Each structure stands twice: as structure tokens, then as C-alpha cells.
Amino acid sequence: MAGRHAARRRRRPEGKAVRLLPLAPATALLLLFLAGPVAYCVAIAFTDTQLTGQASASFVGLANFRRAFADDGFRNAVVLTLVFTVLSSLVGQNTLGLALAGLMRRASRPVRTLTGAVVIAAWVLPEIVAGFLLYTFFNRRGTLNAVLEWLHLPTQNWLFSLPILAVSFANVWRGTAFSMLVYSAALAGIPQEITEAAEVDGVSGPRRLWHVTLPMIRRSIATNLMLNTLQTLSVFGLIWAMTRGGPGDRSTTLPVFMYDQAFQKSLIGYGTAVALLLLLVGALFSVVYLRLMREEV
Length: 297
Description:
Elements: H1 2-20, H2 24-45, H3 63-70, H4 72-106, H5 109-124, H6 127-138, H7 143-150, H8 158-161, H9 163-188, H10 192-200, H11 206-216, H12 218-233, H13 237-242, H14 254-264, H15 268-296
């Protein structure tokens, strides 16, 4: 009997190794294509590596990070990144996605099909294509001003006067479909008897939304906010196609600032340090959302 127990204990490590064996290829690919580049970027961020005109790079310690915090351009990019994220993700995509999901549950089938097709079509467009489309919409001679002129309303160069609002609207237009799909699935999961009980108790309209619907889908809201925030923090092609961070630096978010420093000014070490700081901002947002989700369990 004791011999059989000993044999089982000897077999258990081997059994675990066999069960983990199918994960080995995926783990190797993650280490090669994710952990490897991240580790290389961390190393570059502590050097004065340049794209051109440099024979060899030297270790500079925290100089690139100190330079970033002392750089007015970096601080401006941090503020604009937060504004862009709050307007287009936390407020725009999240609110509009929830509103569309709620309205589509009450709409007829043809309306749901048409609305879903239009919204999802904007989502599946490549970011650079969506950027050019919205550029033509907000341009001085674009569609928006043409409509305003037809209505005899004042026009302006929106990409010059309100660039951060223009790119925020563009990101809302392109990314709302994801929130709509998440909330459509969440609303479909609310038991019908709970909704009917709220109606019987006289809880309807905004009160039912606030006291019944939102608490029932709070985990979906937290998940959607986290994913949307991380995606919005990394938006580059949309802004680059519309404004290139201008005029001046009035729509220069952290990804645009990082690209400008690394590839326009050839400061690879400094640009990589900015990229790591952007990664840290995303990690902080993720920690906050994950903590909120854990407290709700």
C-alpha cells in the first residue's frame, strides 16, 4: 500500500509536466515576441541611443527619464493624453456604447441590423483609413463645414481651432462599436424577471437604469472601461493622419510625442523612455480597474 502511494507521488510531477507541455509553444512565442522586445526597450531606455549620427551608445542611467519630467513637451503630452482618454474613452465610447446597446434592444430588427452594420463598419476600418475619413470631415473645406454652410451657421477650421476635440470625436466614432457589443451582451444577460419586478414596483426610466441596470452590469462596465482605456492610450495612426500632433503641439499625445522624439528627432533612447512611461500609465489604469472589479466580487 505504501509502495503504491509512493509511486503516485512520483508520478504527479510528471503528470503536471505533461499537462503543461501544450503551453510550451505559446509560452516560447510570448517570450520571443513580447518579453524579448520589452526587455530590449528597457535596456535602450537607459542609453543615449540615436537613430543616426552615432558610432556607439553609452549608458546614461535615469537621464532620459529625468529629461522627460523636465520637458514641457512631455508634460503637455501627458495632459493631452489624459484629456483624450477621458473624452473619447471614459465618456464618449462608454456612454454612447451603452446608449446604443439599450436603444437597439427596443428597436425593430431592421433598425438593429442597419445600426449595427454602420457602427461596426467604422470599427473594422483600419485606423489610418478612419483618420483620413475624419480629416476630410473636419477639414476647412470638409463635410462638416459644408453642412454648416447649408444651414447658414458659422464655420471654422476645426482641426486648427479644436484639434484635441476633433481627434477625440474621431476616436469615439471609430471605437464605440466595441462598447456597444460588450453592453449588448451584458444587457442580454440581465434576467427578465428582475426587469419585470422593477416595472411592477414602479421603477422606470433613469431610476431603473441607475438602481437596477447599471449594478447588474457593473463588471462588464469595469472590463469595458479597462480595455477601452488601454486601446485609447495607444492611439497613434488616427491622430497622425488627422493633425500630426498639431497645430503646434495642441494634439500631441504621448504616442505621437514618442514617435516624434524617436523617429523624427532620432532620439531612440529618449523616445523609448517615453514609451516605458506610457506603459506605466496603462499599467496604473489597469491596476485601478482590476482593484475595482475585485472589490465587487
